[in-house]
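Long-time lurker. I teach an intro course on protein structure, and each term I like to show students one example going from raw sequence to a predicted 3D structure in token notation. This year I'd like something fresh instead of my usual example. Would anyone be willing to generate the tokens for the chain below so I can use it in lecture? Attribution to the forum is fine with me.
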Amino acid sequence: MKKFLVFSLMFGAMAFVVPSVEAKTGAASVAAGPQIQVQIGQNRRNRRYYRRVVTRTRITRVGRATYRETYRITYLPNGRTRTQIVSRVRVGGRRY
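-- Reply from a regular --
Happy to contribute to a lecture. Here you go:
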């Protein structure tokens, strides 16, 4: 009978102690984590979204022929530019 009473008191005490220990460890882990996040400098992820693309047209001469070139200029985040010819159409000059 004494053993039954002792075990029932132990299990009864554990029913109140175990949830409070779990709550303390959960609260401690939340309190240990950072509350705010500070970022210094540029956002290095998704850099492709910070480029600017412009389309231009110019007239160029190659020998006696005249061409209208349409080209695309891409301004990259690191300050460089990339130029790419989109189309070249002959508009004047001597045709053979």
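Some talking points for your students: The radius of gyration is 37 Å. The chain has two domains: 1-31, 47-91.
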